[in-house]
């Protein structure tokens, strides 16, 4: 009687195949890693280029000029007769014109009555007709902005030593052939008693928008007899 022997049949797999699969996966992972590195590097380079471009653009861009509105003088500008249709716009003096710089000192005259204009002697400046001794006025040579000042040293006990209140009042006026009228620009007032103080100083300075040909004069409205020494001047700004 014969026996049929049966047994499990084992199908063998070559041992090299799993190793090849593992190597293939490793290669794919390395390729993906390389791609990620390249993408990251490109992103960094793009960011750096954008940063440099932005900074260079800011440095080379020309700054915008500030917008400012011109300051208008508080005084009223009166246009010369014969040009009433247009408004005069102040302009700066041309470079060829010599800027006005003039300083005057007072000539105190005795026995004056009423409201006299101050008489002056030129300390410096006053050339090219910028001081008119007949009208006792500073003459503006070029339209523009000028700083005008006045200073008075008052002696309160110059006449009689008593306790009466002494008043002083001065006005700065301008006149021009164009509008043919005297205009008050500004004024100053002060008062004091001889028993309290023997002398006082009055100073006044202001920036004015003046026209060519304006005559600036100092009118002593009250207290001329109190003036011991004074000065008057103007300069172009």
From TrEMBL:
Residues 131-235 form the THD domain. It comes from the Eukaryota. Residues 78-97 are annotated as: Disordered. SUPFAM superfamilies: TNF-like. The keyword Transmembrane applies. The keyword Transcription regulation does not apply. The chain crosses the membrane at residues 36-54. Keywords: Membrane, Transmembrane, Transmembrane helix. Pfam families: TNF. Residues 85-97 have a biased composition (Low complexity). InterPro entries: TNF_dom, Tumour_necrosis_fac-like_dom. Belongs to the tumor necrosis factor family. This is THD domain-containing protein. It comes from Ilyodon furcidens.
């Amino acid at each position: 009687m014969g026996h049929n022997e049966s047994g499990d049949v084992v199908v063998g797999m070559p041992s090299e195949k799993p190793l090849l699969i593992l190597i293939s996966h490793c290669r794919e992972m390395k390729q993906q890693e390389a791609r990620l590195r390249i993408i990251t590097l490109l992103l960094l380079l793009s960011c750096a280029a954008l940063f440099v471009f932005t900074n260079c653009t800011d440095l080379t861009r020309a700054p915008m000029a500030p917008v400012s509105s011109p300051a208008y003088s508080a005084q009223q500008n009166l246009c010369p007769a014969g040009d009433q249709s247009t408004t005069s716009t102040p302009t700066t003096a041309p470079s060829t014109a010599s800027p006005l710089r003039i300083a005057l000192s007072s000539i105190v005259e005795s026995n004056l009555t009423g409201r006299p204009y101050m008489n002056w002697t030129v300390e410096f400046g006053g050339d090219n007709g910028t001081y008119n001794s007949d009208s006792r006025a500073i003459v503006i040579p070029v339209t523009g902005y000028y700083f005008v000042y006045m200073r008075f040293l008052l002696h309160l006990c110059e006449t009689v030593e008593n306790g009466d209140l002494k008043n002083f009042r001065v006005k700065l006026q301008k006149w021009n052939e164009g509008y043919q009228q005297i205009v008050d620009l500004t004024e100053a007032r002060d008062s004091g008693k001889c028993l309290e103080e023997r002398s006082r100083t009055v100073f006044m300075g202001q920036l004015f928008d003046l026209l060519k040909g304006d005559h600036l004069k100092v009118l002593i409205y009250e207290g001329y007899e109190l003036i011991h020494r004074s000065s008057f001047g103007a300069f172009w700004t």
